[in-house]
Amino acid sequence: MSESQYDKPTRVELADEAVHWDLGSSLSYGEYLQLERLLTAQKPISSQHNEMVFIVVHQVSELWMRLMLHELTAALECIRRDDLDPALKMLARISRTQTQLLTVWDVLSTLTPFEYTAFRNSLGRSSGFQSVQYRLLEFLFGNKHPTMIEVHKRDPQAYELLARALAEPSLYDEVLRLLSRRGYGIPENYLTRDFSEPYQANKQVAGAWLGVYHNADQAWDLYELAERLVDLDYNFQLWRYHHLKTVERIIGYKPGTGGTGGVSYLAKALELQFFPELWQIRTSM
Questions:
Q1: How do residues 66-121 score in pLDDT, each as one tens digit?
Q2: H runs (alpha helix) in the chain
């Protein structure tokens, strides 16, 4: 072994770095990120060591959903203005964020049934089913279900927020309005429908999307928008699948704490598609 291998530094020298040791009146890293509030929000209600991973995984998920809602709200405004370049960037960021949401299931799956059962009863009726942000995302993506907001009646602000999102056009509704403005044949009753009701696939809408794909050179931004939507739908389906398998791994076929059937309830959602025509037309191309 050469002498040079013994001479490697054992620490990073800071003598030649202009580190701001005294922050003066400037914000610190922790102050800017409000870490005192963030890192004291993990409050287990049992004495079980493994409850911490359960709390952190769900809090991290809510933070990622917070970012998704931030980007999605801005993307919707851009689509309404027919300003697709920034909207495409925002939708791409949402897709990347979705991949982070997928990885949290890997961490949660380290909980064994024995470990989770040790503190599960402490949760009472609390459940991810009651996540306001998750429900808002589903509504904004287009999975409308009026009954879903009833569980939020105890929180008037959340209830009003979800009721408003339920009644307003979803991402897909706004995209179809954009297609109509660009001259693609979208049925009028789809542009003015009751947006609180679930979206139903339509052959004429499928035909409009085929027109976009067959003329991608002339409608490149719409073609890119379609593929961004497919990315979102695809990732959401993966998230649902990972959710189901993680629940199955940890609690088997027990009912969920929120009152659903657990795995049986999650399985119902696996076939849901936010943008059905974009999947249907793939067979026709």
A1: 999 999 999 999 999 999 999 999 999 999 999 999 999 999 999 999 999 999 99
A2: 29-32, 35-38, 51-80, 84-108, 113-120, 132-141, 156-167, 171-181, 188-191, 203-214, 220-251, 263-268, 276-280
- The token duo for 139 is 């509504």
CB of 87 within 8 A of CB of 79? yes
CA distance linking residue 219 with residue 225, whole number of Å = 10
> Which tokens is 190 given?
């789809």
Q: Is the pLDDT assigned to residue 262 strictly greater than 90?
A: no
pTM listed for this prediction? 0.92
CA distance to 56, 80, 127, 261, per residue, from 38 (Å)? 11, 35, 21, 33
